[in-house]
Each structure stands twice: as structure tokens, then as C-alpha cells.
Design goal:
The chain is built from seven helices and eight strands, in the order H-H-H-H-H-H-H-E-E-E-E-E-E-E-E. The chain is α+β, with helices and mostly antiparallel strands.
Length: 248
């Protein structure tokens, strides 16, 4: 199987999340060896997926292990696999569904520590956290899984590393930050979309993690990051720590 260059670029996110079929994966890996652009994008997608899971991770409650061990006796074993039985070929449909599911698995493992929400202490609070994590997951995975997703990486004036993944098809952009210095009381990092010199609020980030930019990035040219008073500002009140062009 041979991929043309445009097809190969569109498969970067699927490759990173392990959602390519065998033939596509082999063809993409052949392409990847010679394409520096795809190598860079693959590295950025890997970092973004890992940071997303870490951003919503919660330590499992003390009682979780005992509850899981006590429930093991009541779990039915899976039936034996029959040699030669072939799984149905779902092709591209499976691949597209696997993208958000692959991210969901990493987030669920981090959040729930191997058990289910209704088995844990403080179930109502954890269910709310799960809903919030799912909403974030849906928004992020929609951008990462888009065929036209592109990424760019930069460094802020305070030393933080910032990665932006954007999709025109989804009209969305995701920002991941690492090594953001801790903030003192009364301060927050605010994100901005730059429309030809006009800065519009695009959300907040208070530490390392991944966020979806709010607002409409369709006509924006760049993403900004400033340090603002808690609660945010309608316009930047300090010099940008970062002003980075959105990926084309």
C-alpha cells in the first residue's frame, strides 16, 4: 500500500493514537522515516495526548483497591477465543471511531484508576468530574482526530513550552502548556485570539495542561498568552508572554 503525501499528513493523529489498520500503519511508517514534518507533528500529538490524560488524572480513593478485589469473584471470565475466527473489517469507520476512544481510554484509566465511578467513594462528585473530563475529551479529540489537524510549537517568555493543534474543518484549536511557572494569589494565565491586532479572550489556563480555546479561531491569525488578574480581563493588561501564529 502506498500513500500520497496529502493522505499521509492526514493520518498523523490516527497513527499516534494506534488507530490505523495494519496496511495503513505500515505505509505511514515508511512515509514517516523520510518526512520531517510528519515526525514533528507525530511528536506533538503524542505529547498532547499524554498531557491531556495527565491533566485530568486523579489519585484513586484508598478504598478502591479493596472494592475491586472484593468484586473479582463476581466477574465472569471471557469466553475462549476460537482459532481462525476473524473480526469483521470495519475499515475507515472503525479508524474514525477509534480516535476518540483511544483518548477516552487513556483519560478513563487516569481518572478512575481501574475501577468504575459508582464503585468509588464520593460517587456524585466523581461523576461530575467524569462528565467534565468527557466534555473536555470530546472537544479535544474532535480537533486531534480531524483530517486537517496541524500543530505548531513555541516557547513563552516565562520559559513555558506551548503546543497548539488546530483544525479548520472543526473550527477549533487546542493548546497544551508545560513548565508554566506557578502563579501567586490573584493572578491567572489568560489566552487570546488575535484578529489583525485585536485581541479577544479565548479562555484561561492556570497550570500545565490542555485546554480548548474558546471563541472562533476561523479568522484569527495568532494565539496570545498573558498574565492577568484573577477572573481575567476584557483586554490584555500586560505584555504577551507568547504570541504564536496558528498552524496553517
Amino acid at each position: 500500500m502506498k500513500l500520497d503525501e496529502s493522505d499521509a499528513h492526514a493520518l498523523v493523529a490516527a497513527y499516534v493514537l494506534g488507530a490505523l489498520e495494519a496496511g495503513e500503519r505500515g505505509a505511514f511508517e515508511d512515509h514517516l522515516q523520510a518526512c520531517e514534518t510528519c515526525q514533528m507533528e507525530a511528536a506533538e500529538f503524542e505529547a498532547t495526548a499524554a498531557r491531556l490524560a495527565a491533566a485530568v488524572a486523579l489519585p484513586p480513593p484508598t478504598a478502591a483497591k479493596a472494592q475491586v478485589m472484593a468484586a473479582i469473584d463476581g466477574v465472569r471470565q471471557s469466553p475462549p477465543r476460537i482459532p481462525g475466527a476473524a473480526a469483521p473489517a470495519l475499515g475507515g469507520v472503525l479508524r474514525r471511531k477509534a480516535l476518540p476512544l483511544a483518548l477516552a481510554a487513556s483519560v478513563a484509566a487516569a481518572v478512575f484508576g481501574g475501577t468504575t465511578v459508582w464503585q468509588l467513594r464520593d460517587g456524585q462528585e466523581l461523576r461530575q468530574q467524569a462528565r467534565q473530563a468527557q466534555q473536555q475529551l470530546d472537544a479535544v479529540s474532535a480537533v486531534l482526530a480531524a483530517p486537517d489537524a496541524r500543530s505548531v510549537r513555541g516557547r513563552a517568555a516565562n520559559g513555558a513550552t506551548v503546543t497548539i493543534v488546530a483544525s479548520k474543518r472543526q473550527n477549533g484549536a487546542v493548546l497544551t502548556a508545560t513548565s508554566l511557572p506557578a502563579l501567586g494569589a490573584g493572578k491567572i494565565y489568560q489566552l487570546w485570539l488575535d484578529y489583525g491586532g485585536t485581541m479577544r479572550p479565548a479562555g484561561f489556563i492556570d497550570g500545565d495542561g490542555t485546554v480548548v480555546l474558546t471563541g472562533d479561531p476561523a479568522d484569527a491569525g495568532a494565539v496570545g498568552l498573558t498574565l492577568e488578574p484573577a477572573g481575567g480581563s476584557p483586554q490584555p493588561t500586560s505584555a504577551p508572554l507568547l504570541l504564536m501564529s496558528l498552524p496553517a
